[in-house]
Amino acid sequence: MRIVIVTDAWHPQTNGVVFTWTYMQRELGRLGHEVQIVHPNGHRTIGMPSYPEIRLSTEPGRIIRAALTEVPDRLHIATEGPLGLAARRHALARGWQFTTSYHTKFPEYVHARVRIPLAWTYTLMRRFHRPSRAVLAPTQAMVDELRGWGFAQAQVWGRGVDQDLFQPGVRDALDLPRPIFMNIGRVAVEKNLEAFCELDLPGSKVVVGDGPARARLQRQYPQVHWLGMVDHAQLAPLYRAADVFVFPSRTDTFGLVLLEAMACGTPVAAYPVTGPIDVVPPRGGVLSEDLTAACRAALTLDRNEVAALARNASWQQVARDLLAQMQPTLPERSALRSAA
User: What's the rounded mean pLDDT across residues 66-84?
Assistant: First the structure.
């Protein structure tokens, strides 16, 4: 089966959207399917306002027309950017069915930067996703939230963790006073890292990652250890070195880093919000509006038990679930094949 996935986010970006679709490309291929990722790389782009590291296509229509000269068996539009809009327009003009996914709480991100009312941005997002046969969101809490905003066709499509890469092991990657409290991810205003940096905790605080807010936060919190960008394949020793993984974000739809930390045996401290409430089970971490108390309580959890809780999250199963939720681009073609 030929599957086309359209995404405005792709390498060399390092975020959950890119990692999710990289794993899907691998796992769907292993299941015997032909997978084409349509992305902006190799074409003219501009930096996203306030986030120039994210490149947006300036010629999305041309890219989509070149990629979709033939009808794919399945079409999935992963993002709401220029390529996603062009793919949506292309599909609707031809009467094609497609599915979409909801990776990022853009209304909240925009509101954090320029205070545009959430209702305005959610109206635009709802309009984008309305023709989709299914809007795939990573947790039940996110599905419930979307349905509250009028996304009637929202469905759960979970996430996995690379068990070969992220697993318990030696914990000597950092020579810092313990306990070590760590955050890994994009350093941006929506990640609420100030809440982590200001916690009154013993030992050391470590932030791994880069982003538009790093220079300001590094000046503001010199007592925090800022390690900068680390390749995804090299993160496991850092996850293992941490005593607690601290996740202060209130706007993530999931948080792949939560599963990766737990798979390495590191318990999580987070707020009880969308993302952590579905991803972090009891004994896998501590969720509380008092993040300091959550960090201290997480220190008492059994690391072997934490790791065991993440072992059922398989990317192969996520790929199988995706196949079950995608719809035939042309239903009549699918019916003819079934009859044959």
Answer: 98
Q: Is the peptide bond before 168 cis (omega within 30 degrees of 0)?
A: no
Say whether both 215 and 287 belong to one domain: yes
- Which tokens sit at 79? 């993002």
Model confidence over 159-173: pLDDT tens digits?
Answer: 999 999 999 999 999
259, 300: one domain:
yes
Q: How far is CA 147 from the centre of its chain?
A: 20
Is 294 in the same domain as 326? Answer: no
Burial 207-233 (b: 16+ CB within 10 A, else e): bbbbbbbbeebeeebeebebeeeeebe
Same structural domain, 26 and 131: yes
**Is residue 166 included in any domain, yes or no?**
no
Side chain identity at 324, as an amino acid letter?
A
- pTM of the entire predicted model: 0.92
- The pLDDT of residue 337 is 53
DSSP output for 262-292: HHTT--EEE-SSTTHHHHS-BTTEEE-S-HH
**What is the four-CA torsion angle of 278, 183, 305, 161, rounded to 10 degrees?**
60
Is residue 305 assigned to a domain? Answer: yes
DSSP-derived 3-state class of residue 192: coil
In-domain check, residue 165: no
Half-sphere exposure of 138 (CA within 13 A, CB side): 24
Cis status of the peptide bond prior to 179, with omega within 30 of 0: yes
Residue 255's pLDDT band, with cuts at 50, 70 and 90, is very high
Kindly state the DSSP code that residue 171 receives in the 8-state scheme. Answer: -
Q: Which band of pLDDT confidence, cut at 50, 70 and 90, is reported for residue 109?
A: confident
100: CATH: 3.40.50.2000
198 and 270 co-located in one domain = yes
